[in-house]
Specification:
The protein is α+β, with helices and mostly antiparallel strands. The protein has a domain of 55 residues. 25% of the residues lie in helices and 23% in strands. A 3-stranded antiparallel beta sheet has the order 1-3-2, with helices on one face. The longest helix is centred in the middle third of the chain and has 10 residues.
């Protein structure tokens, strides 16, 4: 499974789409953040019974500050 998601607040998204986004009903509710962090995504995938094979780009990569991540996940037993 491939998932692309923003993992930090983006002004351009918040000013245009935030009004259409329903209030969060998960871990973000307490923190008032709109997007899950890479660590929160990995935890969520694990709780859903999936294995997160990769989260790209890595934290030290030059593109990491852009706050857009690709998560590669799979079910256990599937290669």
């Amino acid at each position: 499974m491939l998932i692309t998601e923003p993992t930090r607040e983006h002004l351009e998204i918040l000013t245009s789409q935030a009004f259409m986004m329903p209030p969060p009903q998960d871990d973000r509710q307490r923190s008032e953040q709109r997007f899950l962090s890479p660590e929160q995504w990995q935890d969520l995938l694990q709780r859903a019974g999936l294995i997160c094979e990769a989260c790209l780009p890595d934290e030290g990569h030059v593109l990491a500050p852009l706050g857009q991540r690709l998560f590669i996940a799979r079910r256990p037993g599937n290669a």
